[in-house]
Design a protein that fits this description.
Distance between the termini: 56 Å
Largest sheet: 10 strands, antiparallel
Oligomer: single chain
Number of strands: 10
Structural class: alpha+beta
Helix content: 55-70%
Order of helices and strands: EHEHEEEEHEEEHEHHHHHHHHHHHH
Strand content: 15-25%
Length: 522
């Protein structure tokens, strides 16, 4: 039988509930014996976008003393509180990243779910927990019950007492009988986990903050209204990820912010005829500026995050020789982040946020004189744009060969991103996910190859650019030799992507795909 979290009947305290349950179990020859009492501080954690909660889990930091940094990190079932994995709480400051944890059960459970996202505190509780063993007439433990009284640490607000019923292997019938007696007394199964009650009590929103767009659109909706709705949602994503980017909590904040900016720029570029020309030019320039000031920091995030994967390209015996390279990249990353933060906190950024918000609010009411397609149905306009960009990519791709300049691969990659954004932002809600999904899938495969080509080119340029810094560090001779080997492998992989491009481009521009574009969008 699965564990259950039970709430006492309304008006009954937790202590009274235990007494009532003990009395109700007497006819079944079952008794409750207290086995342990503990007072702890419990901090629930999850990623900003709620990845653990979506998986039915929560991370918990439990410590005995309020001021103690020690304790235990556990991964628990959010609904029942049952521990799935645990290990000692890590020492050190800064955001808690699963990838940086010592090897252990909690790290192994967390890493596949949270990846590079930081675990952030959702709510902090003072918890009094009393453990009971339920024993039969032979003195054998047939089930366990934990009574928990929790208060919000910040406000002192008491949350409803909970009883967690945990079965013991081989005694399912007894556990079911205990649950039945509890229901007879008016106990109810908790509608939501304690972590969610705590988050709500703390003023938060269970489930985290999503960076997905998902704006519902109607095919006959005015194009300017549809564009404004999508851009407003993208502005919400930018705002939601701004503080985390500045605080450098994890690399995904800046990534999601930049994706939202790129998508916004794509909407302005591809639906330009629905915007007033003067304001269009202004905001395209400002969003380009925002993309530019965040670029170096994001580039160095990627260099650091993917460095171990780059190490794998060289023989195992010389991988450690690349450590000086990593130190240089981390120093450059820190500098790029500080520079970015100054700009994100600048008056120009604050002005952009205010003006962009006001512009989107007033767009539909703006004069139509210089906005020829503002009132056109978005289904028609989006379909036309998707088909046109697709044809443009076909033309660009047919002109590319193995010996083409890297810039041509880069340009088709940028155009592919625009098409993907059009498909995701407008194609999916207007033409249906099942219709658009195959096209996005084949485009993504093409983009992955083009992205790897671009990454290899930039990585080679970056390594060459830091060679002078590395040459001034201890271990420089071995490091420079290892860099040479790495550069050779990166160059070979860049060449390999050119061969893969032809295969992926052929699939993306297949007869079936061209027919789909013609039938659905053109």
């Amino acid at each position: 039988m699965d564990d259950e979290e039970l709430l006492p009947p309304p008006g009954m305290s937790g202590t009274a509930a235990i007494r009532a349950l003990a009395d109700a179990l007497t006819p079944d020859a079952l008794t409750l014996a207290e086995t342990r009492f503990a007072e702890t501080v419990r901090v629930y954690l999850d990623t900003f976008d709620g990845r653990l909660g979506a998986a039915g889990l929560a991370a918990v930091h439990t410590r005995d003393q309020p001021g103690s940094p020690s304790g235990r990190l556990a991964v628990v079932d959010a609904a029942t509180g049952a521990e799935q994995a645990g290990q000692p709480w890590p020492t050190g400051d800064g955001p808690l990243l699963a990838v940086e944890l010592e090897p252990g059960p909690a790290r192994a459970a967390l890493l596949p779910i949270v990846d590079v996202r930081a675990l952030l505190a959702l709510a902090e509780l003072d918890v009094q927990a009393t453990a009971f063993a339920v024993r039969d007439d032979l003195g054998k433990t047939v089930a366990r019950i934990a009574l928990e009284h929790a208060r919000m640490r910040a406000t002192g607000e008491a949350l409803a007492a909970r009883l967690r019923l945990q079965g013991v292997r081989g005694y399912d019938r007894e556990t079911a009988r205990i649950a039945g007696r509890a229901r007879e007394l008016g106990f109810t199964v908790a509608r939501r986990p304690l972590v969610e009650d705590a988050v709500v009590a703390d003023g938060g929103s269970p489930g985290g903050t999503s960076s997905k767009v998902g704006v519902e659109l109607l095919a006959n909706q005015r194009s300017d209204a549809a564009a404004a709705a999508v851009l407003r949602r993208l502005l919400e994503v930018i705002e939601a990820n701004l503080d985390g980017s500045i605080a450098d909590l994890d690399a995904e904040f800046l990534h999601d912010l930049r994706v939202a900016v790129r998508r916004s720029r794509a909407v302005l570029r591809e639906l330009k005829t629905v915007f007033p020309p003067r304001e269009l030019g202004h905001f395209r320039a400002e969003l380009k500026w925002l993309q530019g000031i965040t670029g170096p920091a994001r580039d160095h995030d990627v260099y650091v995050l993917e460095f171990d994967a780059m190490r794998e390209l060289v023989p195992a015996g010389i991988r450690d020789d690349l450590d000086p390279v990593m130190r240089v990249l981390k120093d450059r990353r820190e500098l790029a982040h500080r520079t970015m933060v100054r700009e994100l906190r600048s008056e120009r950024m604050m002005r952009l946020r205010r003006e962009w918000d006001a512009f989107l609010e007033e767009l539909v009411a703006a004069p139509l004189d210089e906005r020829p397609q503002a009132q056109q149905a978005i289904g028609e306009l989006a379909g036309m744009r998707i088909a046109k960009v697709y044809r443009r990519i076909r033309k660009m791709g047919r002109a590319i060969g193995p010996d083409s300049p890297a810039e041509e691969y880069h340009e088709i990659r940028k155009k592919g991103k625009e098409l993907r954004y059009l498909l995701e932002l407008f194609g999916t809600p207007l033409f249906g996910a099942e219709t658009v999904k195959p096209m996005i899938k084949s485009l993504k495969s093409l983009q992955d190859v083009l992205g790897r080509h671009q990454d290899r080119e930039v990585q080679q340029a970056t390594l060459r650019g830091i060679a002078e810094q590395v040459s001034g560090m201890p271990g420089r001779t071995a490091a420079l030799m290892a860099m040479g080997v790495l550069l050779e492998h990166l160059g070979q992989d860049e060449i390999a992507t050119r061969g893969e491009f032809a295969e992926q481009f052929a699939e993306f521009t297949s007869k079936e795909r061209r027919a789909q574009v013609k039938d659905v969008f053109a």
